[in-house]
Queue: 4 jobs
Job 1
Amino acid sequence: MSVEISVIIPNWNGRTYLQKCLGSLRNQELSDFEVIVVDNGSTDGSVEFLHRHFPEAKVILFRENKGFSKAVNEGIRQARGDYVLLLNNDVEVDPGLLGHLHEAITHLKDADFLACRMMDFYRRELIDGIGDGFPRKGKAFRIGHGVKFGPPFDQSRRAFGACAGAGFYKSELFKEVGLFDEDFFAYHEDVDWNFRANLMGYRCFYVPVAVVYHIGSGTTGGLYNELTVFHNVRNMIYVIMKNLPTSLLLKYLPWIVWGQVESFVRFCLVHGYWRAYFGGLSSAIRGTGMMLKKRKEIQRRRRISILELEQLLIASEKERKRQV
């Protein structure tokens, strides 16, 4: 039997956050949904906690940590809903979240997937992100991050894409665009998916009334550690390799090189993650052949014009300037 919405939550040693996350889902005003938790080999008692306190949730078990992409993909495969909501385990959701998202996807005729308003869990007047941006220098960013909520972030509009920590999708999109790239393991897999969706002509819109409160890096230990730096460096290069059409790649090469210089300064000179940075860089180089094969198919399926894509990237830059 189908349901309207499937909520998919990947989890790895996130027992600390599950009560708040799943407890807030129990308070939803819309009731026609299922909850799927995909556990990535947790050793902190997460699975036992879920079975005891949230028996209504379907739990999919992996014996080891397979990464965000693989966990989410398995959840999508087993989802019964017409729509899919992806949630990080370290979020608390507003009671009206599912209702607002369902109403928006129904009434925004040009919308194929939606970005929620993610707010900082501890400083709730501050935006964590209202979607993903992707400027010409090839470094994705969270739109509105760190800015106090208010105009112009209180208005719905098109975004480059949704953060998969709180992204809402028509289920059929995953058949058209494909699932998340499991070679990414974690980080920027949503940026890659957003890019592929845009190239195929699908559109994302930001919904300001759809609110979640995000702790951030709840189970990975923060933005600056060996794991996150390695995957951030490698996967951002993967995104460019796979998705940016050749004409724009050549046109934006100076911007892209500058973006990589900024990453080097940030990760190595400022924070000292030399090994992780160069490990990610060398891994990206080794994966070039694999990514170029994927690139060929992605570019073959592109439906939007180069001009449309360029306008979308420039619009991302304008969003970036609004939060500086």
Job 2
Amino acid sequence: MRGHRLYCGGNVTKRSIFSLQFLNRPFTIHVETRAQVQIQIGEPVNISWTAAFFPITGQYNVYHTYKVNKTIFQLQNEGILYGGHNVSNKYRYITRPYNSVNISFEIRHTTVDDAGYYAGGPTADSAWSGGGVVLIVSDGPEKVNITPKPSLNKYDQIEVRGGGFVGPFNCSADCNPACNITWQMKHSTRFYDVLSETGTLFQQVGIYMEMFCCVAKWTAIIK
């Protein structure tokens, strides 16, 4: 599974001064304006919400949607079924009694495919009508460090005149296995690699340069 984290930002002002704004922006998956939980790949996570009611008869279904919509388990007054089975290596239901409106379960061995929207109800229509939780699975190093810390103006930007230099700024990330650190420059709608040595940016600025990004990439095998 390949991941990365970016630390970037900036724009060109009308005074032909290159204004570079640093923003710590993680690469995440499936961001929505509902209740959210964010984790790193591989971490277990508890998902919970309060249902409007639990059906007296029938069952309460818990759904997940990311690439496809699917039912991950069904709750009944007496117990739970995970796709027709009594136990699951992936999910563990926590709440007792089973007919409680407090829905809570654990997801184990998380991958990017576990990201998305979780909701429940007697029917799919009732589940997707509102509520539920969005799970965000971060696919990259937990932290990217820029040193020395940039000296920012009142607009949280550093300014370099055209023909001047940005840097030196060193980019590093705490990741295992070791990350591949590169710097990129944004021009129009594309990113281009810029020359850097051992993660250090020292770049002469042109007015066509809109943004610099530190990119930390890793490759991990999820078992």
Job 3
Amino acid sequence: MSTVSISPSATGHTIRDRVGAHHVVSFTYEIGREKIKEFARAVQDDHLTHFDDGAGRELGHDGVIAPVTFVSVIGTAVLPELFENLLIGYGIGDILHTDQQIKLHRPLRAGDVLSSDLSLESFRQSGGSDIMVTANDITDASGELVATTKTTFVARTGGNPESENFQGVLDGVLRQGG
């Protein structure tokens, strides 16, 4: 079995050294009522609980709730810090998002102010690829865990981590309202 070398990052650490590391994201994300509606329309989820407070209350919620996949909005927002602090040496153009697991501990609600604690759960190499699993523990303003996501990324071993400007690619993919 051959061993593939992993280039150290600017800090002198390899990605293997980062396994188990955490990074608390430097900003919070407040879920807006209109963002919930906009997202629900975009993913064609027409359940009334995403549009009408009364429908949400009928099901025991305080008002509108976000679709389960709304956590992807938060996940996308934290990507720059994920690459800067945990997936050091990789860029958005180097990776392929191959798996996503979402566990909601409670529904996401309009008005929630959420924080993210990112971690690198594992790293392994197989077939010329680097396989990385990250986690995002999302908590509300009171510290209650509201969602946990696990994401698997794959990159070519020895790929060119300087091949893409992350923010430029992200800006080209995201369409943000003003």
Job 4
Amino acid sequence: MKMSNLSLGLSYNADAGLGMNVNTNFTSGLGLGLDYNFKSKDYTANASYDLNNIGGKKWANVNLG
């Protein structure tokens, strides 16, 4: 599986504290992501899959998370 992109982001808010997110997409259409909050120790994982030509519609996709 070949990675097509990787992104990393940081955010800060006085109430929520420091947060980080990492997302990657693969040439197969699979996308994976993780959001983490350092103050609350909460995290969210997500995944997506780009189905492309379902019913002739190139925008169709699936998201979980």
